[in-house]
Amino acid sequence: MMKWLVVLSALVAFSECLHRMPLIKGKTARQTLQEQGKWEEFRKHYPYNPMAKFYQSGTESMTNDADLSYYGVISIGTPPQSFTVIFDTGSSNLWVPSVYCSSQACQNHKKFNPQQSSTFKWGDQQLSIQYGTGSMTGYLASDTVEVGGISVANQVFGISQSEAAFMASMAADGILGLAFQSIASDNVVPVFYNMVQQGLVSQPMFSVYLSGNSEQGSEVVFGGTDSNHYTGQITWIPLSSATYYQISMDSVTINGQTVACSGGCQAIIDTGTSLIVGPTSDINNMNSWVGASTNEYGEATVNCQNIQSMPDVTFTLNGHAFTVPASAYVSQSSYGCMTGFGQGGSQQLWILGDVFIREYYAVFDTQAQSVGLAKSA
Fold first, then answer.
1. Which residue from 110, 173, 182, 227 has the highest number of Cβ atoms inside 10 Å of its Cβ?
2. Helix H segments across 17-165?
3. Are 64 and 101 in the same domain?
4. Which pLDDT does position 60 carry in this prediction?
5. Of the listed 65, 67, 88, 250, which one is catalytic?
6. What are phi and psi of 36, to 5 degrees?
7. 109 or 170, which is more confident?
8. Mean pLDDT score of the chain, rounded to an integer?
9. Which of 65, 270, 282, 354 is flagged as catalytic?
10. So where's the catalytic machinery, residue-wise (predicted)?
C-alpha cells in the first residue's frame, strides 16, 4: 500500500510541473474581412503563399494566411504589458508591435512601450522576419517574458518598427516562435530554449492541443503532455531536420490509392499554418479525389451536403498511418464548405498545419528531436 501512495504522490507532484497556456480560438482575418465586405478585394492583392516563411528569399512578397484562429496571451516587462500571440512551431523568434511602429498593423494592435518597463534592455541589432502572412522589421531587445505562468528572464525579442499590411487584419498582436534556434533570425535564443536552460520546465518538451469547434479548451502545455487531450498511445517520429519540426512522410492515400507524396516527401508540423499544404499538383489531385472544385484562388469548395459521404485521407508518417476524416478536413461557414488542403506551389515540401493538429495532439520534444502524435480527445 505504501509503495502505491509514493507512486501516486509522485504522479501528483509531476502533474503540477505542467504549465498551461490557454489558447483562444478567435476570429480569423477571413471572417473579419468578409464581415467588412473587403475580403474579395483583399485576397486579389495578397495571394496565399504559405511556403514564404520556409523559403526566406528576402523579397517583400505580401501573402495571407487568412484562417489562423488560435491565440494566447503573454506578457512582457515589469510591470507586465499583455499581448496576444500566435504560438508558431514554424518559426523561432518572439516579437510584438511597439510604440515606435507607425504601420497600420501597429495602430490597431497593442504596442509595447519600453519606457514603461524597469527590466527592459535594448539590444544592438535590427531584426527582419518573413512569414507566410507578410514581414516585420524592428529592433532586438530583452526583458522578462511571462508565458503560461512561467517567467523567463532576459528573453531577447523583437519590437516591431514596421509591419506588413496584411497583419492589420490579424487578431494576434505578435508571434511567438517555438521552432529551433538554428532558424532564428540573428540566432536569438528562443523562448522555449530559455525555459529549459533556466530550469523552468520539468521536461524539454511542449505539446499542443487544438480543439475543433469550441472557442475554449485549446492549449499549449509546456514541460510535458496532458493525457486528457488524447486517446491511445503517442507515436514518436524522429525529425529529419531539427530546424522546423520536419519529418518524413511516406505517402498520402485515399481508399488505399496513393494520391500524393508518391515515393515519399518531407513534411513540417506547423501550428502557425492553418491548412494542410502541399505541392499544387498533389493538392489538386487530392481535392479532385474528394470531389472538390478549385476556384481561381486555389480554394477547393465542396457541397456541404456531401461531407458524410466523402472519403478519409490517410497520411503515412515514418511508417505510421494518420487518418483525417472529411469532418476534420472540411470547414463550414456561412459562405459554404471548403477543404483544408492548400496549394503550396512547386516546392515539394508539405505543411501539416492546424487542420491536421486538431485531429492529432502534437508533442514537440526538442531534446530527443522528435514529434509525438496521438489521436485528439
1. 173
2. 29-35, 39-45, 104-107
3. yes
4. 44
5. 88
6. -85, -5
7. 109
8. 90
9. 270
10. 88, 270
